Amino acid sequence: MASYETLLVDRPRAGITVATLNRPDRLNALSFQAFKDLFQLSQEIAADEATRVLVLTGAGRGFCAGLDLADASALPDMTAAQLLREQESWAEAITSFQRLAKPVIAAINGAAAGAGFSLALAADIRIAAPAARFNAAFIKVGLTGGDCGSSWMLPRVVGLGHAYEILLTGRFVDSGEAARIGLVNRVVPAEELLDEALRVAEMITENSPLGVALTKRVVQVNVDAPSLEAAVELENRNQTLAAGTHDMSEALRAFREKRPPVYTGR
């Protein structure tokens, strides 16, 4: 896997890659280079058959403080066309994790603001330390409350009412409130955060690669399904596809033989 200017990438356990935003002196704020690194990471994880689950976290006190103000100072000097190109590339970098066929877990150790909030939302599972807090910072600097996919992802996570309030006010949501409204799955002690994320990731890797990929896809599609019938149609096709795989046969053999299955992705 490539080296990155702004990320540390490690494989602490089989099938699991941990990517750490590594600008702790800036609370892991996203420079223009950091957006490029995140997009490259998502593409490499998509192509890496050895990675079954990706864990995202931050070095130091912050998860991700959003766009670095040093880079943001260049925005007023850009033309509308230039800024649109940059905005599109930033949004693509963040939402690429939502589009990954592989599950993404965010281990949120501190503040997740602005584009960092969107990055947390792009994960499929969010586990937080007590110091975690969240805000859609864009509205506070004369921009809109929707950025890098937040206006699409947030209502699907917490519902319309909570999403409107968070996006319109720009206020911070602390870890306790985040857990109450479903913004994070749970809050664990800071010293247990990464271990808990890895524990969940390992539970996912115990299932077949195709089963996991199709499960992520069916949830993403069916959250907007026009009817129960349409949702079940997709479920039926997924089950039929998975039933014909070698991994399905292996799972049944392993169950009868009282042993863990050995999946090959076939």
Number of alpha- plus pi-helical segments: 11
Q: Structural class of the helices, strands and pairings?
A: alpha/beta
Major β-sheet annotation: 6 strands, mixed
Number of domains: 2
Q: Kindly provide the radius of gyration, computed on alpha-carbon positions and rounded to a whole number of angstroms.
A: 19 Å
Strand count = 9
Tag the structure with descriptive keywords:
3-stranded mixed sheet, 2-enoyl-CoA Hydratase, Chain A, domain 1, 266 residues, alpha/beta
Give your account of this protein's structure.
The protein has 266 residues and is α/β, with parallel strands linked by helices. It folds into two domains: 7-205, Alpha-Beta Complex (2-enoyl-CoA Hydratase, Chain A, domain 1); 209-257. 48% of the residues lie in helices and 14% in strands. It has helices at 32-47, 69-72, 80-99, 115-122, 150-158, 160-169, 175-181, 193-205, 209-222, 228-243, 246-257, and strands at residues 7-13, 16-21, 53-58, 104-108, 111-113, 125-128, 133-135, 173-174, 186-187. The strands form two sheets. It has a six-stranded mixed β-sheet, sandwiched between helices. Helix 1 (32-47) links the parallel strand 2 (16-21) and strand 3. The radius of gyration is 19 Å and the shape is globular. It starts with 6 loop residues before the first strand and ends in a 9-residue tail after the last helix.
Blueprint of the fold:
Blueprint: E1 7-13, E2 16-21, H1 32-47, E3 53-58, H2 69-72, H3 80-99, E4 104-108, E5 111-113, H4 115-122, E6 125-128, E7 133-135, H5 150-158, H6 160-169, E8 173-174, H7 175-181, E9 186-187, H8 193-205, H9 209-222, H10 228-243, H11 246-257
Parallel strand pairs: 2-3, 3-4, 4-6, 5-7, 6-9
Antiparallel strand pairs: 1-2, 7-8
Helix pairs in contact: 1-3, 3-4, 4-5, 5-6, 9-10
